[in-house]
Amino acid sequence: MLRFTIRRTLLVIPVLFGLLLLTFCMMHMVPADPAAALAGENASLERIEEIRQLYGFDQSMPMQFWRYLLQVVNGDFGLSLYSHRSIGGDILLRLPATLELTLTALLFGTVGGLSLGTLAAVWHNSWFDHLIRLFTVGGLAIASFWFAIMLQIVFAMNLDWLPLRGRLPTGMTPPATVTGFFLIDSLLAGDLATFAAAMRQIVLPAMTLSLGSLATITRFTRSSILETLQKDFVTYELAAGIPKRRVIFPYALRNSLVSPITQVGLLFGGLISSAVVVEAIFDWPGLGSYLVDAILTSDYMAILAVTLVVGTVYAFVNIVVDLVHSVVDPRVAEEL
User: Fold this and answer.
1) How far apart are CA 322 and CA 324, in angstroms?
2) Are residues 148 and 269 in the same domain?
3) At 245, which CATH number?
4) Which of 102, 142, 250, 307 shows its CA 20 to 30 Å from the CA of 95?
5) What is 234-257 written as a DSSP string?
6) Dihedrals φ, ψ of 79, to 5°?
7) What is the pLDDT along the chain (336 residues), one digit of tens a residue?
8) At what angle do helices 61-73 and 300-328 cross, to 10 degrees?
9) CB 272 within 8 A of CB 315
């Protein structure tokens, strides 16, 4: 297990290098001049050239990439070309908000998907199964921005059950920073009022973000359990008089988890990318809104840094998923 973990971690390095190189090349294909954007609309050609030399935009692409790569290796993402603040500091400030939202949505989708998929497989071809299949098709087809607006209209504006936007109510002081996750930090501080407020704030954006993953995990869980229920060991246990409930939950469900767990790892990357839209709608101060601002201002350094950080998080989440595979199915560990 340790050998596999080390090997997978080392394989992350060339993947992240390729991601950074690809993003760097694609950004330089865009017909936008960051030096002109920094100088302003009425800047003279001399001022634009001065800024281009100051930030190294006059050098060749390989040299620019090499300089940035050396900075990253040294743990320095540089200064934002737009705000002139440390990009690393901005990311550390906003990353916990995005991860908290993404992981909460993934938790909603995983727990709900496993539950609904299992019940749909147990009650195969019943009215509940047909309803769940209809729900999964709709969940994959509905646009997240439309679903977010509908949730805001119904639960925030009409019923007034949940807040409309933000990470905490206006005027409420955030808990002392330990992990950067308001839910965890408020519990560590014993501040149940802040925990309850943060939980109410995250419900609507997390529900919006989890819709696609909930539908996907439900479908894979249902089909995987139905396949497992056709196997000989299930037929034997049922013939031996073991109650169907005991056969399904300890045995059939565990043997069916590999496929849904794989989807959890794949869905994580999609959730982070979808968070850009959700954060904008719910005014969530995460990496999504930061990345949008960086793109609009042609802040190449910030775009590269966010791409690298998100790619790193996604790669290590998939390593965790592989480790969970080996726990759920020991045969996976024997093959590693």
Assistant:
1) 5
2) yes
3) 1.10.3720.10
4) 142
5) HHHHHHTT--HHHHIIIIIHHHT-
6) -100, 145
7) 667 677 777 777 888 888 788 877 776 676 666 677 666 667 777 777 777 777 677 777 788 788 878 877 777 777 787 777 888 888 888 889 999 999 999 999 989 988 898 888 888 888 998 999 898 888 888 888 888 899 999 998 898 898 888 888 888 888 888 888 999 999 998 889 999 999 999 999 999 999 888 998 998 888 888 888 777 777 777 777 777 777 777 777 777 777 777 777 778 877 887 788 888 888 888 888 888 888 877 777 788 888 888 888 887 887 777 777 766 666 655 555
8) 50
9) no
Tokens of 251: 């045995």
179 and 236 share one domain: yes
Residue 162, sorted as left (phi over 0), alpha (psi -120 to 50) or beta, turns out to be beta
In the DSSP assignment, the letter for residue 19 is H
Segments in the chain forming alpha helices (H): 2-29, 34-39, 45-54, 61-73, 87-122, 127-141, 144-151, 182-188, 192-229, 232-239, 244-247, 253-255, 258-281, 287-296, 300-328, 330-335
Secondary structure (DSSP) of 116-174: HHHHHHHTTTSHHHHHHHHHHHHHHHS-HHHHHHHHIIIIIIIS--S-SS-SS-TTPPP
Asked if 59 and 120 sit in the same domain, the reply is: no
Which of helix, strand or coil describes residue 86? strand
Compute, in degrees rounded to 10, the torsion defined by CA atoms 313, 176, 155, 160.
-170
Global pTM value: 0.81
Joined together, the tokens standing for residue 221 give: 């869980």
